[in-house]
């Protein structure tokens, strides 16, 4: 996109980790007005250490989002690589990401995380913005079954890493403290958005947390934006082991019963034709959504391909999601629409 060209539609992507990274790499192909709203409950690795030692919002997922939106100019690429670099060795810095330390340092110098993120975004020439979903660090608490001899007995598990790796089955998650505040700029971004994207990502620890922050949930319910939910390519070991695509939607609806979504985007190969698609269609309808299938995966992997995902999102943006036998329309950007099945 050249100087003077319109930035494109306002896109907001909510999530965390590698799932949000994939969404942002796709969204940046459609617009330079992209806002990432990032989970802040990580308690593992470098982020967990900085959170525990300094009382800061865990910076790791925020750093990943900045890297996803960073300029690809060669002089910026060195900064992006450095931001993502992780120290080796066995000393006090071992395992820390350089970017995590920079965000932590800037937060202390500038006085708040949003200002720190905006400063790093300026250095990386990010055309968009990265925001924490809440101005305070949060913790995830889950009700988990299957950890006791009686499969009906539920145990409470606390902490993002513990929830993500539990051998039991997660039934429900909460945030601590309860009813946390949302970052005001994140709420404003959702309110003015043309497209809001939720997912893919760790369902209970990266996706659902957004819909249990009251102000974010209210903004998602009230925004005039088109809302798209991107399903994972496969269930994740631990928190969603054994989950069908339909089950993912039921769990989301359980946590946010008033949330309505326009589109559910599913990889063509991840849900076979037949009864499973019928069940998924009915579950989506309860959210107010239609299901669209497209090839959005990197060949032979369980990760999303940025170009393929961008093409599918482009059709959603132009409200050309295929329904039944309806023919896809031309993309609003002039590119050929993706092939829908």
Automatic annotation (TrEMBL):
Annotated keywords: Cytoplasm
Chief location bin: cytoplasm
Superkingdom, natural source: Bacteria
Classification via Gene3D superfamilies: CofD-like domains
Subcellular location: Cytoplasm
InterPro entries in the record: CofD, CofD-like_dom_sf, Gluconeogen_factor
Pfam families: CofD
Listed PANTHER family: GLUCONEOGENESIS FACTOR-RELATED (PTHR30135:SF3), UNCHARACTERIZED PROTEIN YVCK-RELATED (PTHR30135)
Family of this protein: Belongs to the gluconeogenesis factor family.
Purpose: Required for morphogenesis under gluconeogenic growth conditions.
Protein name: Putative gluconeogenesis factor
Species whose genome carries this gene: Rhodococcus gannanensis
Gene assigned in the entry: yvcK
